[in-house]
Specification:
This protein has a 7-stranded mixed beta sheet with strand order 2-8-7-6-5-3-4, sandwiched between helices. A 4-stranded antiparallel beta sheet has the order 9-10-13-12. A two-stranded parallel sheet has the order 1-11. It is α/β, with parallel strands linked by helices. Helix content is 42%, strand content 15%. Helix 12 (271-294) runs parallel beside helix 14.
Length: 375
């Protein structure tokens, strides 16, 4: 099997450990174990629980406690509709491995996380990419989706909230996607890894698993919950599908770590506190980013409605890899090249990490842009 190199992950692997100002990070600023325990108000009890935790494989689909907590993030799901995975990246890969066969027709909304088109393509599927357009607010043209979905479409893959743009499909849009999929008898995989940090309200938009009988939602502890180091995600969907997924999972994961499972339970049992922190960070930092963008003539964007990332379009006559490489070399500031998403003359910024890092990074990026304008 041949597969296209994963452009975003290769860029992150090359530079995120050595840059000085990481504005490519996509997680809400990570919690330490100590901060999580403090947030719980049960530090000593949890430490005692950790002390007594046997380092065995543990329940293969995830502990009943954790699956129940994940189910509670949805309106119409129970523990049997949840399968715990090695991050959302593992969840997405397992869904594609379970459903996609050679010659199947797959529709993937792009830009998105590269898994959703490169993995089906590597399996020999016929992949139709449905482009999001800046002039439409980076939201899918659902009439166009209706035209490209046919009777032989197996799967529609969407990403909501969207990475890299931060665009958000509302419940009505998701319901229309479900109607289009139902006409074809297709599955809908919705990568919802950023769900929980909408800029308004309680931060949660509707989930495809709650809206459509063949809807599959994936998520993780990484982004809104600030615990990427747990490497813990999930698939939510119909139980017969999860049984098929579990067959594939046996070959790749067995179980997640017992300690990871336990700490994820602690976070979800205190999700109101964890998410309140995430909302403070994402909403404060997006306001800072928005002020910076609106104050410049050489940067434009569609302001994100959710997520932790935005796609910035710049006016300098440089390709995005050259732009980001020079920015790193001259200032220590790290963005992600838009070309990694096949959208040139843009960069992805992650705005949900440390606030002061964001302020400093934006100031340095502005100085870099000013120097480019004088060249």
């Amino acid at each position: 099997m041949k597969i296209r190199p994963f452009a975003v992950e290769q860029w992150m692997n090359d530079y995120e450990e050595t840059c000085r100002y990481n504005l490519a990070e996509t997680c809400v600023r990570s919690l330490t174990v100590g901060e999580l325990l403090e947030m719980s108000g049960r530090r000593e009890e949890i430490l005692a629980e950790l002390d007594a935790t046997p380092l065995t494989y543990g329940p293969i689909p995830g502990s009943p406690r954790l699956r129940g907590l994940v189910a509670g993030l949805y309106d119409r799901q129970g523990p049997d509709n949840v399968l715990i995975t090695h991050g959302a990246i593992g969840a997405n890969a397992l869904v594609h491995a379970t459903l996609v066969e050679p010659a199947d027709h797959i529709v993937a909304v792009v830009p998105t996380y590269q898994q959703h088109y490169s993995i089906p393509d590597s399996y020999g599927a016929r992949v139709t990419r449905l482009p999001l357009r800046e002039e439409h607010g980076w939201l899918p043209d659902l009439d166009e989706l209706d035209r490209v979905v046919s009777a032989d479409t197996k799967l529609i893959a969407v990403n909501n909230p969207n990475n890299p743009t931060g665009a958000l499909i509302g419940e009505a849009g998701l319901a229309r996607i479900a109607e289009i999929a139902e006409r074809a008898g297709a599955w809908v995989l919705c990568d919802e890894v950023y769900r929980g940090v909408d800029q308004d309200g309680d931060g949660f938009t509707a989930s495809i698993a709650d809206l459509y009988e063949r809807g599959i939602s994936t998520g993780s502890m990484s982004k809104p919950y600030s615990l990427a180091g747990l490497r813990l995600g999930w698939i939510v969907g119909p139980t017969p599908l999860l049984a098929d997924v579990a067959t594939h999972r046996d070959y790749t994961t067995i179980s997640v770590g017992r300690v990871d499972d336990l700490l994820a339970c602690v976070a979800l049992e205190n999700k109101n506190a964890v998410l309140a922190r995430s909302h403070r960070i994402t909403r404060t930092n997006l306001a800072i980013l928005d002020e910076w963008v609106t104050g410049r003539d050489d940067i434009t964007y569609v302001k994100p409605a959710s997520s932790t990332t935005a796609l910035l379009r710049y006016g300098a006559p440089l390709g995005s890899y050259e732009f980001c490489t020079r920015l790193l070399q001259e200032t220590g500031v790290m963005f992600t090249p838009g070309a990694a998403f096949d959208i040139e003359h843009t960069v992805r910024i992650g705005f949900a990490d440390d606030t002061e890092t964001l302020r400093t990074g934006l100031e340095l990026a502005g100085q870099f842009l000013d120097r480019l304008a004088q060249d």
